[in-house]
Design brief:
The complex is a heterotrimer of chains A (407), B (408) and C (518). Among the domains of chain A are: 85 residues, Orthogonal Bundle (Fumarate Reductase Iron-sulfur Protein, Chain B, domain 2); 110 residues, Rossmann fold (3-Layer(aba) Sandwich). Chain A has 23 helices and eight strands. Chain A has a four-stranded parallel β-sheet with strand order 2-1-3-4. In chain B, the strands form five sheets. In chain B, strands 1, 2, 11, 12, 13, 14 and 17 form a seven-stranded mixed β-sheet that branches. In chain B, strands 8-7-9-10 form a four-stranded parallel β-sheet. In chain B, strands 3-6 form a two-stranded antiparallel ribbon. In chain B, a hairpin with a 6-residue loop joins strand 12 and strand 13. In chain B, helix 1 runs parallel beside helix 9 and helix 7 runs parallel beside helix 8. The chains are: A alpha/beta (407), B alpha/beta (408), C alpha+beta (518).
């Protein structure tokens, strides 16, 4: 539950501690005073015209659990992200935060230089240098760049304008990670949607800006927001659903632009309402096609970790509803609120150990269950989990594709 | 298609959703946040002023107990106790009499059932007990807890403060922080070693209810072994672990049973008025992106009372039911809502929905408003839960009856 | 009965009484101040927290406006730590009399109250929650003044110079000899012991209680009491004092004070100084008027309501001739002249901003009677600033808590107002016979959003350990008192908070047994 003016929602806090009890970061480190303490509690003491004195809010990972569990309507995580942005204004953030905020630059440069960059990133010395110069933890996951981006692979689906006939058209917001790092996932998502009767197009789009936002670069993030809204609103207006496989990107389009970055206006609203997580779309709009489909059995166990960013959509876990249709599949749910990485939080050298501790329960659960599949909808969660569990972690759409004989 | 949407995730909503899943229904639990169990002692209050069963049996209409009947209460409690036993969170008690257990402020609280870790206080019989807090832990004070209790129970109650091992924490610790520490075998061994000399001669030790979360039962057993005494827990200020343990068992039972859980979304009711009989069509969930329509065969409101948002009191004197805007039994004169002292029975606490014996909200004409809309728990009118000690009993019994009615 | 002798007894521990005692003390006069309760328990502590620029009075009471402007400047010099320089605004709304702002601005110039017009756009940039429909906006030198801070500074300064302040002592009798007051008998309300104080002059600065004090000397003091309700919103909706630029009326001001913003005020005649009830219409009116300044304010959380009593001197027409009625909102009566009771002076009414000036005028009357010809030096003697008092200004407390990161932890017992265990321990040690309500006045314990639902228990434990009594550490009466201020606001989120606190106290803590409640 959120309101459009997060800081004002601080008033609604009853101090009940439901958020504190649920916070995965406060659970593992005393450096973080907890969501209530740095959120609605500290907010009363932040003077709008004086520097904010509390650096401890920077330990918030932005996972959003607090806002989701608050029964009284306090936008706790949003208050904290805005407080972090004020800190970024007042204290120049390290170069590292600028770098990790721009996956689009990195991805673009990385794909061009993939033959050189990928082996280099596997070198301990290079990672050591990154840690020392930028503060990106040497153990943090850095996936290899793909040699061909999704858009170049699927050039025939790239469009510059809204198709004349919008019937069954789906605009795929693939985001940076699918385009530059995981184009195979994009291929499978497109295949699943098309198999279920959609016509998939790749509309013009830019990085959603969420990494900038969570590192406090609100102005840069607002520029991304404005560009994406301009690029996507014609599709939404034409009734073409904007569907994404990256839960954090779709959350930015749906919620963060308006509530956290304060982007106003009808267009932001139209894009928000027209954006869907891929499973939300499939479960909600393609139920008939699902009912008619003959899913191949997958005799296996799967551990499903719904990312915190997905849970912040406030729509539950639609992937679970769809995956239950796969015969033979036994799904176990993650018992952890968050895997730890929380976007770019776990990349930072000083946060790395905290992020690991947040994920420890999930790593343990994975080891104990030792499932055939580990599933998670968010790319950073997948990379982080792969690194810490030594299990291959896939997007649930990939498992669905398999059961649809598309893999 | 969802068979039943339960709105609200307190004791009532979680229990109802779990019940629905057990009956094989496709159930969706939609909640704007986590419910009130976090501030609950974990005890199941049925009726605290006398033998619970007899009190329930003689509750007059329109008390929810009079509508729901003894049978629903019995079966609800049996189902829950079975789940708790199977989930390694055993409870003690019965419907014939109440357990009187100490509180953190030196009073006592009565309930028909309590987590065994709390009820173990009674193992001390009339013998002496020691209540101990942890130095620097602000949400339980051993002196405050023991001071009045001794006089009230007419038996010796001592107080002690136990140091927490390790270096000073960097911030105040919540009960949940301590619960996690207690789950670390090394930490608790170190703690118990430091406490043994302080607790020489103590046979029954009361500690704040922070002794583990998921591994609670084994934590208590380990401490008792290390200290060679019996340990009972006393609930702390929120977050209150015994309530959180109960919540966690119920939530996991829901998820394991295939309940679709949507957290964070507020719900607005949808009404299907196309036919002669008005029906609830489902809800509109306010998701991050915007409103989302969810259809369902039936809707159960377990949204709670004024505290939890099922009812919203307006400055104008209006009382609003937050999902379907149903008529609420209340006084429209705002100045009559509260009593002069906080400990007085409060008129507002009795406000709520009127329902029939199947837990369907009623209109002014006394007829059900919709055929497939149900309500249970704190949102129901006609009970003084605080004074009666009936909060959990009403929640469980009405949830049981509502699910039975919704999924015949 | 123990006795002592002094030169001057001042009755009343509000701003007026402390101001008189301080002025006397600086002139070398021996003084004992007697207060029946605690500092600022009457009108001084029950106000909206405004240091007047004078703007409010430029048309209704021009001399008062000039006094306010002058005293405002002086107080900023004397006690800067008690003042937050918020600045002030006078704004007019579309429905306000359109000719008022120009008349008002002219009157500001005539009375020496600095004011100038600024653009609505710049006001909205500074205060984004204010209504975009404001018509005219003016900037003035209002500020917020923490009266408890000021009273504590005055009390400390007084004691440091040998003046005595007796709290929780009630004057039971004024001793008269040959038409003159020569002393007082006082009762220690904590111990029940009596003491007698001999003095040459007694000043009655008992505010709303001045009539009953005067009656001890056989003097009938005609006083009218006006009750004003105020309401604190849970957060600072504005960072500048905002006044309505229209003739003075109910609900015309919004003052940011520390963590909250205060809406003031109404004016209802009452019979007794203890009638502090608040009617629903008063709350509705305050919120409706504030809605004009801050649209949507009713959607914010109202934290607490309280009322204060303004005493005003209302002589019968015939008695008027014999008084020294000053052309101001306050009145000084030398009862030697008015009632033939020498050595007894009453000071009635006034406002916090001009307390120093009132005291100076009282001393002009009594100094000759005490044989002092020293001139007033309160305007040039700064009050010793208290480090602790920075406490109330934003973001000081957060900074303090934050600084201890990594160092031994601060242990926050009141999380809403960021009060630490050591703050409470210090206060418990410093106050004579403290209860939780004293800690509240001193530190804002229980004044934040949770209204003592958490901190009450923690502080009660500390108090019980330190004092050994009462059995619940004083928690039950403290929660009753919190409840009293919440009741007028019992709807919406405030009612949620009330029920939350009640649920914790009764169901979780078993604070009051069911048998006791029924």
């Amino acid at each position: 539950m959120t309101t459009s003016t997060p800081t004002l929602s601080a008033d609604l806090c009853l101090k009940c501690n439901i958020c504190t009890a649920a916070c995965p970061v406060a659970a593992v480190t005393e450096l973080f005073p907890g969501p209530k303490a740095v959120g609605p509690q500290a907010q009363r003491f932040r003077h709008p015209r004086l520097p904010s004195p509390d650096l401890s809010v920077s330990w918030c990972s932005g996972c959003g659990t607090c806002t989701r569990v608050c029964p009284h309507g306090v936008a706790i995580a949003e208050i904290n992200i805005q407080a972090k942005a004020r800190l970024a204004e007042e204290h120049a953030p390290p170069l590292r935060d600028h770098v990790i905020s721009r996956p689009e630059w990195l991805g673009f440069a990385g794909s061009l230089a993939a033959p050189i960059a990928n082996p280099l990133l596997r070198l301990g010395a290079a990672r050591w240098a990154l840690e020392k110069t930028l503060g990106i933890d040497r153990h943090a996951p850095m996936p290899p760049f793909a040699r061909r981006t999704l858009r170049s692979r699927r050039r025939q689906r790239v469009v510059k304008a809204v198709p004349a006939d919008p019937t069954n058209v789906v605009a795929y917001y693939h985001g940076c990670s699918t385009n530059y790092y995981e184009p195979d996932l994009g291929d499978k998502a497109i295949a699943v949607l098309e198999r279920l009767g959609c016509r998939v197009v790749l509309p013009p789009q830019r990085c959603c800006g969420l990494p900038m936002q969570s590192n406090g670069f609100f102005d840069a993030a607002r520029r991304q927001a404005a560009t994406n809204i301009r690029l996507l609103v014609p599709y939404a207006r034409a009734g073409i659903p904007i569907v994404g496989t990256s839960t954090s990107c779709t959350l930015a389009l749906k919620h963060d632009y308006r509530v956290i970055l304060g982007v106003e206006g009808e267009e932001a609203e139209i894009v928000a309402r027209g954006t869907f997580d891929i499973f939300e779309f499939i479960a909600g709009r393609l139920e008939g096609a699902l009912d008619a489909f003959d899913f191949a059995p997958v005799e296996a166990t799967a551990l499903y970790h719904p990312p915190c960013q997905l849970k912040s959509h406030f729509m539950g876990t639609p992937a679970l509803r769809v995956l239950r249709r796969i015969p033979g599949l036994s799904i176990t749910l993650s018992q952890s609120e968050c895997c730890g990485i929380a976007g770019t939080y776990g990349l930072k050298h000083e946060k790395f150990a905290v992020a690991q501790a947040v994920g420890a329960g999930l790593f343990r659960q994975t080891a104990q269950l030792d499932p055939e599949f580990v599933l998670s909808d968010s790319e950073t969660c997948r990379w982080w989990l792969e690194q810490h569990t030594r299990h291959k972690v896939i997007h649930p759409i990939e498992l669905l594709a398999r059961s649809m004989r598309l893999a | 298609m969802t068979d039943l949407i339960v709105v609200g995730a307190g004791l009532t909503g979680l229990f109802a959703a779990w019940q629905a899943a057990r009956r094989g229904a496709q159930c969706m639990l939609v909640t704007a946040g986590r419910g009130g169990l976090e501030l609950s002692s974990g005890c199941l209050g049925i009726a605290s002023s006398g033998p619970p069963l007899r009190q329930v049996a003689k509750a007059p209409l329109p008390h929810p107990y009079a509508l729901v009947g003894l049978d629903a209460l019995r079966r609800a409690v049996d189902d829950l106790l079975e789940l708790l036993e199977a989930s390694n969170l055993p409870y003690a008690g019965g419907l014939e009499s109440n357990l009187e257990l100490p509180t953190a402020a030196g009073g006592t609280a009565c309930a028909a059932y309590a987590p065994r870790s709390l009820a173990r206080f009674l193992d001390a019989g009339a013998g002496p007990v020691t209540l101990a807090g942890f130095t620097g832990f602000r949400d339980f004070d051993s002196v405050l807890a023991s001071n009045r209790l001794s006089a009230r129970l007419q038996r010796p109650v001592a107080a002690a403060d136990l140091p927490l091992p390790g270096s000073l924490p960097l911030r105040d610790l919540y009960s949940t922080d301590l619960a996690r520490r207690f789950e670390d075998p090394d930490w608790r061994a170190q703690a118990c070693a430091a406490w043994r000399p302080i607790l020489i001669g103590v046979r029954h030790l009361g500690l704040p209810a922070v002794l583990g979360f998921r591994q609670h039962a084994s934590v208590i057993a380990a401490i008792e072994e290390l200290l060679e005494l019996t340990v009972f827990e006393i609930p702390t200020l929120p977050p209150c672990l015994p309530g959180l343990r109960l919540e966690s068992v119920l939530r996991e039972a829901c998820l394991a049973g295939g309940v679709d859980l949507i957290e964070g979304a507020t719900a607005i009711g949808r009404v299907d008025g196309r036919n002669a009989v008005t029906r609830a069509a489902g809800i509109v969930a306010q998701t991050a992106g915007g409103p989302q329509v969810i259809d369902a065969g039936a809707v159960l409101l377990a949204t709670g009372d004024l505290l939890h948002g099922g009812l919203v009191a307006r400055q104008s004197g209006r009382l609003q039911e937050s999902v379907f805007d149903l008529p609420v039994v209340h006084s429209s004169n705002r100045s009559t809502w509260t009593a002069p002292h906080f400990s007085d029975p409060q008129p507002y606490a009795t406000f709520g929905l009127r329902v029939d014996a199947r837990m369907r909200p009623l209109g002014a004409d006394g007829a059900p408003l919709m055929q497939n809309l149900f309500a249970a728990g704190g949102i129901l009118a006609g009970a003084r839960r605080t004074e009666e000690g009936s909060r959990q009993g009403i929640g469980l019994a009405t949830a049981w009856r509502a699910v039975e009615s919704a999924l015949p | 009965m123990p006795s002592l002798s002094t030169q001057l007894i001042v009755i009343g521990g509000g701003a007026t009484g402390l101001g008189v005692a301080w002025d006397a003390c600086l002139r070398g006069i021996k003084v004992v101040l007697v207060e029946q309760s605690d500092l600022g328990q009457g009108t001084s502590g029950r106000y909206h927290g405004l240091l007047h620029s004078g703007g409010r009075y430029v048309l209704s009471d021009p001399p008062s406006a000039t006094d306010c402007a002058r005293e405002n400047e002086i107080l900023r010099r004397l006690a800067p730590t008690t003042i937050e320089d918020t600045g002030g605004l006078f704004v007019s709304a579309p429905a306000d009399p359109p000719d008022f702002p120009d008349r008002w601005l002219t009157a500001c110039q005539a009375t020496g109250v600095p004011a100038h017009e600024i653009s609505r756009a710049s006001v909205l940039q500074r205060e984004p929650l204010l209504s975009p429909n404001l018509v005219r906006c003016f900037e003035v030198l209002d500020a917020s003044l923490d009266s408890f801070d000021l009273l504590h500074l005055l009390c400390a300064a007084l004691r440091a110079r040998g003046g005595q302040v007796w709290l929780r002592h009630r004057v039971e009798r004024l001793v008269q000899r040959q038409g003159a007051i020569v002393g007082a008998e006082v009762l220690d309300l904590a111990t029940g012991e009596r003491a007698s104080i001999g003095a040459q002059v007694v000043v009655n600065a008992a505010g709303p209680w001045a009539r009953s004090v005067a009656s001890l000397a056989g003097v009938d003091l005609p006083i009218a009491l006006g009750r004003g309700a105020m309401l604190a919103m849970a957060s600072r909706l504005v960072s500048t004092v905002v006044n309505r630029c229209k003739p003075p009326s109910d609900g015309d001001i919004l003052v940011p004070v520390g963590t909250v913003s205060i809406l003031g005020t109404t004016d209802e005649p009452v019979e007794t100084p203890d009638d502090l009830t608040i009617a629903p219409w008063e709350i509705d009116l305050l919120l409706a008027e504030a809605e004009i300044l801050v649209p949507g304010i009713a959607g914010h959380r109202a934290l607490r309501a309280w009322s204060g009593i303004r005493p005003l001197y209302r002589p019968a027409p015939a008695a008027g001739a014999a008084t020294r009625l000053l052309p101001r909102a306050h009145t000084i009566l030398d009862h030697g002249e008015t009632h033939g009771v020498r050595g007894f002076v009453s000071v009635i009414g006034g406002k916090l901003t001009t307390f120093r000036l009132m005291a100076e005028q009282v001393l002009q009357v009594i100094a000759p009677q005490l044989g002092s010809d020293t001139s007033c030096s309160t305007a040039t003697t700064p009050l010793e600033p208290s480090e602790r008092r920075k406490f109330h200004q934003l973001p000081g407390r957060l900074e303090r808590v934050e600084r201890t990161q990594g160092a031994p932890p601060a242990q926050l017992l009141c999380e809403c107002e960021l009060i630490t265990r050591s703050d409470l321990e210090t206060a418990l040690g410093a106050i004579e016979a403290p209860d939780l309500d004293d800690l509240r006045r001193d530190l804002r314990l229980g004044m934040g959003p949770c209204q003592a639902a958490f901190c009450g228990y923690r502080a009660a434990g500390l108090a019980l350990r330190r004092l050994g009594a009462p059995a619940d550490g004083g928690l039950t009466p403290f929660l009753h008192e919190r409840w009293r201020g919440l009741r007028p606001l019992g709807w919406g989120h405030t009612l949620r908070q009330m029920e939350f606190g009640r649920r914790v106290a009764l169901e979780l803590l078993g604070l009051v047994e069911p048998a006791e409640t029924s």
